[in-house]
Design goal:
With 87 residues, the protein is an all-beta fold. The protein is built from no helices and five strands. It starts with 11 loop residues before the first strand and ends in a 5-residue tail after the last strand.
């Protein structure tokens, strides 16, 4: 089943209002989007050297957390994660 926890390519998912970790009175929503790239490049560090690597069929999962406030203010926090780590 596709959801904000397991997104499918080309769709944006937003979770229902969830309890925040550590602060149950504070609410949070999580938005995710999976983006596929036929080819991509990524930086890697090998020992003391930074190299640029070519990646084929890479996927990127973008996650944004929106903290709900009782004043109606949303504070976003974003994160990008590479899903295909095969170099």
């Amino acid at each position: 089943m596709d959801s904000y926890q397991d997104p499918q390519h080309g769709k944006t998912y937003i979770s229902p209002s969830l309890d925040s970790f550590g602060e149950p009175k504070r609410k949070v929503r999580i938005a995710t989007k999976l983006i596929e790239h036929p080819e991509s490049y990524a930086f890697a560090q090998i020992k003391n050297e930074v190299v640029l690597r070519h990646k084929e069929d890479a996927k990127t999962c973008i996650t944004a957390k929106f903290f709900e406030d009782d004043r109606g203010i949303f504070v976003p926090a974003t994160r990008r994660q590479w899903l295909n780590e095969n170099f």
